[in-house]
């Protein structure tokens, strides 16, 4: 019976074909190359606007795009391979839902940000933004990892991308908040959205799959590939869509130092909170990255290098403490089953990052920013806002993000509860074998689990 | 006896030293820095031609080069590590033959494309082209993986690079076909060349090594490193040598969307064709990449984003179906033993990509391309060709490529049959232990195979 | 008892917090954004110096920086995961000490190179240089890998970065030597420094941990990730801080060809020196990289492509022979226990690279370099030095580097002998379990080692 419900033979092809064909149709109707991507339009720019090929945004943004792209598909994908029996699902479902999310978000973000004369115009910047949006979906994926079918995940991506687009539009275009690296739009949104989905999909019997929730030695090394790539390229992530020139350089540098400091804080705290003074791979794999999240909003501002370090240091500390002390409480008290601990890596550091952004914005002065103010805070530069007001707007942007994420995640969780979406039974979570043809060396654990299921009917839950 | 024939002690050093010293000699005589790489010549450009360092092609192409370089050495190398007992050979022979191929192709391509005043002049673009050529060799390597010695592989590289250079010269310089991402020159050529080599080297007793042809759980994860890197950087691959400006950006974008669509098509088809609705790692590792291959010719053209998606979707579909239904037939009926299934990933999508390129070329109009026509179709722009004629040329370029690949691969296969080249016996294919010092944990399988060889003399073959 | 001394509970947090807080304090007092990173200052450049955003050094250097960053954290990190039971320590201690070293070296190098008006001004170039300096520390780490605690490693980084900064200042600013890719400052310095530390920390009873010093099959594949990334991005490493334009392109190209040649030399030599003609992963993982080290000084010069190939070829040859014949002698005769064989990969090729640099500098002529002379050899260009004199200076720079490394490494080794720094006992070297929470599948080997320790109570320690 359980074999039947998780059988993807018709469900997965149906949703993949449907979503892909719908996307192609909408692209055919609405999406066009922008002025820098179209052969005709770019050559008009060259001929009539005194530009050279060097001015094409490709050369300012493509290296950053490729770093972000690596983070989305290698970074997130391998970070989640830490599970001993869910490596295929981690890296490959990550691949599937991100491949869909970048297409769908091109449409959604396009409608909100580059819809002119009935057409969406796209280029390198929209590609980066699409990857960013898929990052939020992958953060949510981390919360429900191993407990959802690829059909559920594609549906989650469909709805989450849409809500992401709305929230981002409200924050950036209506409220006029700044959030280049997405402490709010990506990390806070993705984390709390995913946590709410996980809350609605709460599994009281998940204890039956706990023996598969850990790692093996080499799966932890695969996960480190993800960790290090995320860490390495986070400076590119935060700087990918900031203004050209000093802004990109400053954002990359702030992120670089914030991450370095969060790494030392993570190692220190990990050894400190462990009874035997041993380090815990879970902390290193995750909390060391909190330094990237926490400067997602303020990284483009004149944060100063030491300011970035303080932020990263605190983020690494808080994140590690979260893994040690908060995650078990969230699980037992609030019924929040957070497989990857996204609350520690993206949730709390995202909120901290939003607050830090509000603070640094409120401290902006003409003396510090000079003529660069217009790039970072256009409303302060043109006199329509004070720094304090900008800071206040940043703060409300956080509240709105939390609201959209919590309400949206709850609603989407309810949709994902539909029984025919192929969700794994409680006894077979964190197990590749239900969705994958697996090699011989991987087949025993599943059989063991299935067999142990019957005699263990009375197993207690969390 | 078999131990003797696969012993590399003299053969491998001899061919490595010989090829390397020959290459160094030819470089000493013929190869010089080009105008952008030479200290004297570039500073002449700066002083006398009103250029700035920003105009150096390094800044337009080096990031793309590094992405291509990563695809060649990490992407191809790890993609082939899926075999349970051939990980060393996969990644390291890939390393060896690519390291030789990039040197040799610099010479061969240099003679055809940048030979002036008795010297070959090289720079960043020749480095990209050399990597491209080595890509074709690595595709062929995929067809014969596990069944050939490194000595055979180096000889194959020597001849294949040479034939690649001739074919490319005929296509690009004589016929005037366009093929920036190499649907024809790289993928179609490499696949059918390798398949013919494999056909000539047909092993009727390969069944004796089938128990080693599969994967283990972690070898599939290593292979996913290769897959994802190839997928990620394919936009850079296809755009690396297109014209500056809109062309590079458009090519990258088309490839990005084609790959996303082929990923969804692959997941859908993989679940559909599996009896139990389970996904197959072989499909995900390979067919999801077909979207990059299929826009190799047309990616720089005004394909439109939705056109790229349709192409990618069909390529993923056809490629997955090929793995499921065509590969077994090719093996049993046509005696084509294709270890990595390069016919599905590079062969069919390459041919489709060539046909798509012919179609899109034939549809080119001044209205669509504007002044950008000269970059994409110089002969249409200068009035010497109609779009239809350009499309026809593209089609004949495909036929020529197929012809050169099939004839060339057959001839090279005959050369590689020489008995003293260290080829593994049928019982020891897909086995690292014959060429490598392996750690203890890897030693049993080989011994088992060798032992089982004796009592199993009458084993039937495919 | 031994469990107590390796307990990190207080030691590691104490040193991490102390070093990080000290660094933050020094950054707060001394470190400021440079003219290209500060919003106010860069916009002054834009407004008053006729610059455009394209001129920001970010666009010339950031792609190279990211490649270097990948080498430091992925390349070095995974290269060292070859040990069967020290994968966590390899990649994660690499992560920790590099994260500290980049911060500390920003200060040290800043004091020597960009200290104006009481402030250190930093930007993208200082980030690259900080990564370079951490590379030297990681080379030293390779010599002591598995035999030191993270507390010892952080202390080593603290002192080594400081001495690196002094040595670099003497070489580049006082002697006026050229060393863009660090054959001397990074490789020679890092290798001999680490070897001397290892010499002082000599463990006569290390034999007791030898059963853990080898690899397992998949740990060798993890190591190949490191190898290939180092190999791939070495062209970026050597060219990252050379002058804009031809210099960056030429350096990348020379390194590309040198590495290709060293790869063929390594495969050839590895098969040749093995009794059975088999290849050895240790050689491939390391010696193939010697081509990058050997052109670290001369890569930016007019070395010619074939000159680079000859250099790489010899470096691969010497390095492989070193692994086979020299390492055992250094261990048994000179008591140099060099876990990763850094003497073969960085030591000898570094010295060769320094000598090659001296030779190529001495051969510089106006005819070859033209107006590009000022970028490569400013003192020859302005007439204050002859080429021969520049070559002599290069040679003395090597001698000084060797002196500082040997004396400095010895002194730091003495400091690291302090008994309370958590160093592992001789029976538990190359073992993750003493510093890490490890998964179940990894726990046996350690227990076995601990148990075997008991009957051996009389074993003497360091």
From TrEMBL, chains A, B, C:
Domain called Ammonium transporter AmtB-like: residue spans: 52-420
Pfam families in UniProt: Ammonium_transp (PF00909)
Alphabetically ordered keywords of this record: Ammonia transport, Cell membrane, Glycoprotein, Membrane, Transmembrane, Transmembrane helix, Transport
Keyword Nucleus: no
Transmembrane segments: 12-33, 64-83, 95-115, 127-146, 153-172, 184-202, 214-234, 306-326, 347-365, 395-416
Topology in the lipid bilayer: Multi-pass membrane protein
The protein, known as: Rh family B glycoprotein (gene/pseudogene)
Family: Belongs to the ammonium transporter (TC 2.A.49) family. Rh subfamily.
GO BP terms in the entry: ammonium homeostasis
This protein's record includes keyword Cell membrane: yes
């Amino acid at each position: 019976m359980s074999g039947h419900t998780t059988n993807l033979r018709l469900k997965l092809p149906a949703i993949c074909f449907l979503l892909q064909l719908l996307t192609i149709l909408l692209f055919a109707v609405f999406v066009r190359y922008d002025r820098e991507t179209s052969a005709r339009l770019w050559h008009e720019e060259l001929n009539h606007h005194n530009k050279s090929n060097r001015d094409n945004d490709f050369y300012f943004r493509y290296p950053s795009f490729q770093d972000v792209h690596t983070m989305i598909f290698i970074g997130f994908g391998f970070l989640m391979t830490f599970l001993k029996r869910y490596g295929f699902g981690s890296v490959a479902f990550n691949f599937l839902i991100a491949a869909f999310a970048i297409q769908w978000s091109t449409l959604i973000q396009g409608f909100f940000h580059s819809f002119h004369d009935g057409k969406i115009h796209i280029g390198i910047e929209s590609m980066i933004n699409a990857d960013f949006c898929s990052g939020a979906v992958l953060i949510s994926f981390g919360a429900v990892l191993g407990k959802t079918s690829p059909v559920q995940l594609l549906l989650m991506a469909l709805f989450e991308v849409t809500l992401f687009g709305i929230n981002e539009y409200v924050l950036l275009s209506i409220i006029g908040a700044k959030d280049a690296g997405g402490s709010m739009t990506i990390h806070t949104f993705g984390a709390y959205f995913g946590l709410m989905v996980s809350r609605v999909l709460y599994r009281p019997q998940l204890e039956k799959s706990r023996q598969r929730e850990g790692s093996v030695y080499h799966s932890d090394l695969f996960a480190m590939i993800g960790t290090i790539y995320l860490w390495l390229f986070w400076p590119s992530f935060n700087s990918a869509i900031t203004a050209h020139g000093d802004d990109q350089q400053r954002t990359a540098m702030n992120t670089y130092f914030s991450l370095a400091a969060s790494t030392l804080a993570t190692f220190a705290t990990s050894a400190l909170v462990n009874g035997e003074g041993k380090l815990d791979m879970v902390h290193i794999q995750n909390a060391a990255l909190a330094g990237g999240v926490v400067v997602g909003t303020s990284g483009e501002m004149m944060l100063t290098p030491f300011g970035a370090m303080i932020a990263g240091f605190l983020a690494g500390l808080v994140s590690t403490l979260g893994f040690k002390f908060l995650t078990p409480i969230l699980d037992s008290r609030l019924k929040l089953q957070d497989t990857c601990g996204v609350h520690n890596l993206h949730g709390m550091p995202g909120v901290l990052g939003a607050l830090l952004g509000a603070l640094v914005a409120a401290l902006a002065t003409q003396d510090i920013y000079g003529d660069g103010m217009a790039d970072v805070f256009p409303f302060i530069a043109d006199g329509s806002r004070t720094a304090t007001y900008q800071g206040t707007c940043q703060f409300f942007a956080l509240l709105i993000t939390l609201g959209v994420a919590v309400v949206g995640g709850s609603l989407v969780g309810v949709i994902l509860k539909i029984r025919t979406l192929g969700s794994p039974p409680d006894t077979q979570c964190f197990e590749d074998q239900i969705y994958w043809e697996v090699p011989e060396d991987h087949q025993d654990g599943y059989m063991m689990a299935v067999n142990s299921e019957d005699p263990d009917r009375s197993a207690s839950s969390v």
